[in-house]
Amino acid sequence: MSVRKRTIEEHGKRTISLQGNQTLTEALQALQNLQYSENDTYLVVTLSDEKYHVMLFADLKAILKKLGPDSLTQPLSSLPLAPVSRIVPTETTESGGDLLAWVASHPQAPVVVTDAGKFAALFINPNRSGEAGLADNLSLLGLQGELVQLSQDHRADYVPKVQPPTCPHCHQANFYRLNEAMQFFCPNCKGLV
């Protein structure tokens, strides 16, 4: 048995495969050139013949937020990317169905399939707990632009012309928010105002 080409075509994930000495900027350029979506495309970094790291492009936003614009020019091998869980050669004793069953039972555990020692395909069950992050609503390519030009952005020194009101409950100065019931509340103490 082996992992057949049809299994790879039907169930393999969309990937951009790069070497560890390439940069995140090159990865983002490849994503943009291929016009792939960051929400369903994985970056596969080849570190050596038997070592791969994988990350969904949309998850790279957290790395950019944490490490800043310097991460764009660092080698991919130096970024905190997750290692793959398994490496399976195309000529294996496992069938494609066995591999898919293993992937289905192991969420967020990437499996790389290799052909003659080179990356051939990625299988992953993308189910994860519902963790919401700070950068979830931002585009990865947009975030790259924000980080690159953040120091030159005139909005970085923005000060509102109107001072925020003071909450009668917690006495903190902040702009009020509107809840689902269309009532204003203080974002600090959550009290209605």
What order do the helices and strands come in, and which of them pair?
Layout: H1 5-11, E1 14-19, H2 24-34, E2 41-48, E3 51-56, H3 60-67, E4 82-83, E5 86-89, H4 96-104, E6 111-115, E7 118-123, H5 140-149, E8 177-178, E9 184-185
Parallel strand pairs: 1-2, 5-6
Antiparallel strand pairs: 2-3, 3-4, 6-7, 8-9
Describe the protein in words:
This protein is of the alpha/beta class and 193 residues long. It folds into two domains: 5-123, CBS-domain (Roll); 159-193, no CATH class. Helices cover 23% and strands 21% of the residues. The protein is built from five helices and nine strands, in the order αβαββαββαββαββ. The protein has helices at residues 5-11, 24-34, 60-67, 96-104, 140-149; strands at residues 14-19, 41-48, 51-56, 82-83, 86-89, 111-115, 118-123, 177-178, 184-185. The strands form three sheets. Strands 1-2-3-4 form a four-stranded mixed beta sheet, with helices on one face. It is elongated and about 70 Å long. The chain starts with a helix and ends in an 8-residue tail after the last strand.
Question: What structural keywords apply?
Answer:
193 residues, alpha/beta, CBS-domain, three-stranded mixed beta sheet
| N-end to C-end Cα span | 68 Å
Low-confidence stretches: 129-138
Global outline: elongated
The number of domains: 2
- Give helix % range: 10-25%
Annotated CATH architecture of the largest domain? Roll
CATH-level-4 superfamily name of the largest domain: CBS-domain
